Amino acid sequence: MNRFLLTSAFLLAAVPAAFAAEPAVKPVVWPQLPPKATASNVKLVEPHLHVNRAGKGAPRIALTFDACMGKTDPRILSTLVDHRIPATIFVTARWLRSNPETLAVFLAHPDIFELEDHGQNHIPAVDIPTMVYGIPAAGSPQAVAQEVKGGADAMIAAGIPQPHWFRGATAKYSLSAIAQIRGMGYRIAGYSVNGDSGSLLPAKMVEKQYASARDGDVIISHINQPTHAAGEGVAASILALKAKGVQFVRLQDIPEQGDDDTTN
Questions:
Q1: 20 to 30 Å CA-CA from 222: which of 74, 120, 129, 248?
Q2: What's the DSSP call for residue 217?
Q3: pLDDT for 193
């Protein structure tokens, strides 16, 4: 017993010394950040995005959809495919893992679907610790970089071409994160019409939101909530816009203008 106690005491004394001997590892690229920051001290922006207006003739509208996590709304997907309506889909690595069948549909219709980066784990692209709509932000430049790169890496591994656009979770950003993401080679996709408020609106309210779209608008909606009533409104609204002669475009097809240095 005495020998055991002596040995334990020696090990306990040695552990702190071993850790003290290790040099502190400091970031090579990004500076150290303060340990915490309150939401009131973090300036967040929610950039707008417009595509070039058509002017005379049929109005031009870009449909964009977030595939955050979960499954796929067949009401929206079938409407886009059956009526050959172009759309830009922002996918996360989490969503890709759960939806191989839908991904196959997207890849089978490259003339309809443009696939872009929505991140690795659907984490807000804010490089300071804070909460956005109750979701913890990335919290550091390193974590922002991982969210962007992790999403792109998952897309490429799934057979999707290298993305050129990024839209973060919640579509809110810190200005410094915008500069960082732009430095990684991405445009950042804002929007000008919120079609479904995170897929939480009732169908009739979604239809009102879509009906408010004008020439050059970029609409954001969600394609990953098949049980929500919003999806019914999205599908009906797309067909209503089509009946009005709207020209649907993808972000890759037309010049655009974004706030807060997100595209310029």
A1: 129
A2: B
A3: 98
